[in-house]
Fold:
Amino acid sequence: MNLLRTLLAPLSPAPFCLDIGANEGGYIWSILQARPEATVHAFEPLHHFYKHCERRFAGEPNVHILPLGISNKEEYVEGLAVHEAWTLDKPERAKKGRNAASLEREGPGTFPVMFTTVDAHIRLQHTPPPPVEFIKLDTDGYEARVLAGATATLLRDRPLILIELSYMVDDIGDSVDDMLTHLYETLGYRLLLEDGSTPTQAEMYAQWPWHTSFDAAAVPVERLAGLERR
Structure:
């Protein structure tokens, strides 16, 4: 099962989408290939990736690249270093991954980051946007707080979510158990994996592949049957 294709297929002709942790914009490109009329709000607090996305999508009027971090609260952090932006409040346990070279381009100094929440961002739109239909979420271990700050939006709009689940979360980020509890119990979502399985919360935690990162679809339970048949 190609999870991205599965999640993009049921979207409307001009969906409103969020890309949280845009990196170099690969998923923005994929959304536009599937739905050229999509509106995408993409969030990337790291300067190098933000500027890269700005240049890459300069000719796309419906793509908005925002130099913001997404969390469970609105706050301004004046002095984050690159490794702290990557791992937020546990920099001493950071692990260099495939993006290490790009991260080093940020330089040795610190930089300010404004954090907001999905719910706050949606509230502040001057023209209320249509319902959020799709979210890509890749925050390297901080998915729990992003989901907490998006609770109102997720309960109201019931978007489909492509989420990267990382082996690093319990080491340097949020609790896997907390994230799964919020996703399954509070939000009423289920995970759909690439093999087509839909594990329970207990199965998901017990079978967690600690050695790697992998993509999963987070799907409202009431929409799951339709996607499983694709």
